[in-house]
Amino acid sequence: MKTKKDTIINNSKNEYQEFLFGPAHPGSGNFSVKIKLGGEKVVLAKSDPGYLHRGFEKLMEYRNIWQNAALSDRICVFEPLAWNLLFAEAIEKLAEIDIPEKAKYVRVILIELSRIQSHLIWFGAFSSASGFDTGFKIALGYRDYILDIFSIITGGRVYPTGFICPGGLRRDLPAKIEDKILKVLDKVNEAIFYFEKEDPVFKSRTENIGVLKIDDAIRLGATGQVLRASGFLQDIRKDDPYEIYKKIDFNIPVLKQGDAYSRFKLGILEVKESIKIIKQLLDKIPNGDFLNKNIKIGMPFILPKNEAYVRNETARGEGAIYIKGDGTINPYRVKIKGPSFLHLIPVLEFLLKEAEIADIPIIYWSLNGCPADMDR
Amino acid sequence: MEGLISKIKSKFGAEILKKEKNQIWMKINNKDLINICNFLKENGFDFFSCLSAIDILENNIIELVYHLWSQEKKTILNIKTEISREKPEINSISKIYTASQIHEREIHELFGVNFLGNSDLSELFLEDWSGPAPFLKDFDWREYVREKFYNKENENEKGYYN
Amino acid sequence: MKLKIIPKLIANLFKKPITVRFPKQSFDIPDGYRGKHSFSPNKCLGCGACARICPNKAIEMVDIKQKDGSIKKQPKINLSKCCFCGLCENVCPTKAIHLTKKIPFTGDTSPDIIK
Asked: Considering only A13-17, A279-283, B121-125, which range has the smallest mean pLDDT?
């Protein structure tokens, strides 16, 4: 009977083969992994980041806060609105600015819509990597309805350049938008219906693959979805709430197995919770102004000599910004931390260690990593 | 939480700078770093959030800030230390918190700080770079780009020459 | 083999496609979309606030000769560097520059607007 040790084959000179799980866009995004193979099993994996390093932390030191707010949504490709909100919150905490109630409600509705569309891209890419190519087209087709809503409210489909600015919002809500959002949520329910059925082929491809136990997940620094699929309940929206998450009633799903199939199922449960949150907020939006009265967009704003640290729950995990001001209009230092920095370098190298070569795309895509988040 | 803070003050001589709703900022000496991290890990602070570095030219120091989160007490603790700029080195805490190893590797490449005891300090983002550490304040980015890459006659690059 | 899939297949054969053959046909673009700029030279003061706030340095103030012989400074926008953020519209004190709904096409002869 063959044991697991038998399948590692050496040449007579005791050499292994090396190859690159490369940076081609349809295969793995802008990120590559160097893999050493012995037969069919991986012996050593080393990730190779840096293809998208643009030096954001230094670019932000030469620009004032309105130019930085227009620049901050290029940090991550899949969810630009979440990083707009993080930068605006950091400046508001540093200079102690209050924002009106209407702005808080609209911000949370936009963030939850952005979380749904980011998960839809992930479902499409994951099902295409495991061989089911029609899933990619279905998921991206239904994502288009959400992008139409964004272009009515913010003015751009994918990149709302600085719509959530420090002090509130840049424009007012157009009239009669609540009916359109309700129709879009019905379409999202149709899309979830396709991905929710239990398919025996997909299940046998992803069950018990890439198992991450709870002690390893806490030790290696996983946050967000990857930690919740291993059995630990942690969500910044409930532990350390920001904006108006204290007044909303929602649950947080947790699964226990920690393999690739349970991470996929957790994504579907999270989309359903987001739909519940949006429906609660739609009929409660108050009237009022959308921007703080003492701030005009574009005026020179002096940052006080202070420092601040904010964290947020993005669709992929925990994102954080540390900012320090020094009495001029440009910030002195901005440090950005993305959730994929920890998921794609320590956790991936740990999970790839005794895996077979046919499982490498499944493990990589089930971690939901964004290479732009990691390199910034 | 109050009992823990008074214990840290009396045992290690730390200085409390600011207290906000869920965050506490404090400043310590860099020789006590390993003892404080061992003490905090036994008392509920088992999540490592981030590590940031700031370069302050006038006082000739580099300042490091460690951010830790505790799930049972629901607070963030921000610990600040200072190291000198001529010989920047400090003990590594990667044996206590494994998630901090990759953060220390990035700061070693971009700021030039040496972490004693880290298992792997090879290069992360830059390839074949032999100049000074890029994120320090005396390396001017715009001067470097203007000399090496940009052309004054080019229509798209003219605006950066004022 | 599941036979329930056949009626759905036949229904899908006769549906209209979702896509639209752009640029011959077009769908309606909502108001508030950020497209090409439109500039009215009568209202411009020549203060230069739009050139200072642009994040990519896409606006440059040049000297243009007016009809009565005087020389005034007016903005010149480079469309290949612009990111269509709308900050120049928010900063202008007389509302001389604003963004319309027209989509900038590739393939025009020059990417600049000189007004």
From this structure: A13-17
Q: Is residue C23 part of a domain?
A: no
pLDDT, position C1 = 57
> Which residue ranges make up each domain of chain A?
4-48, 58-210+280-375
According to CATH, what is the number of the domain A58-210+280-375? 1.10.645.10
Interface of B with A in 66-105 (CB under 8 A): 67, 71, 74, 76, 78, 98-99, 101-102
The amino acid at B56:
I
CATH assignment at residue B44 = 3.30.460.80
Inform me whether the C-beta atom of residue A46 falls under 8 Å from chain B C-beta atoms. Answer: no
Q: Which domain holds residue C85?
A: 43-105
- The total domain count for chain B is 2
CA atoms of A296 and A170, how far apart (whole Å):
10
Q: How do C37-39 and C97-99 pair as beta strands?
A: antiparallel
- DSSP-assigned beta bridge partners for residue A44: A36
Q: How confident is the model at residue C6 (pLDDT cuts 50, 70, 90)?
A: confident
**Stretch A146-155: mean pLDDT:** 89
Measured distance CA(A187)–CA(A183) in Å, rounded: 7
For residue B160, which residues of chain C lie inside 8 Å, CB to CB?
A: 57
List the single best residue of A94, A237, A322, A323 to mutate versus B (max B Cβ within 10 A): A322
Q: What is the DSSP string of chain B?
A: -HHHHHHHHHHH--EEEEE-SSEEEEE--GGGHHHHHHHHHHTT--EEEEEEEEEETTTTEEEEEEEEEETTTTEEEEEEEEEESSS-EEE--TTT-GGGHHHHHHHHHHH--EEET-S----SS-SS--SS-TTSTTS-HHHHHHHHT--TT-TTTGGGG-
Q: Which residues of B touch A320 (CB under 8 A)?
A: 49-50, 67
Shortest CB distance from C53 goes to which of A151, A159, A298? Answer: A298
Neighbours of B92 (CB within 10 A): 20
Which residues in C lie closer than 8 A to residue A159 (C-beta atoms)? 83
Count how many domains chain C has: 1
Predicted confidence (pLDDT) per residue in B92-113, tens digit = 888 888 889 999 999 998 888 8
Of A58, A220, A311, the CB nearest to B135: A58
Same domain, B86 and B97: yes
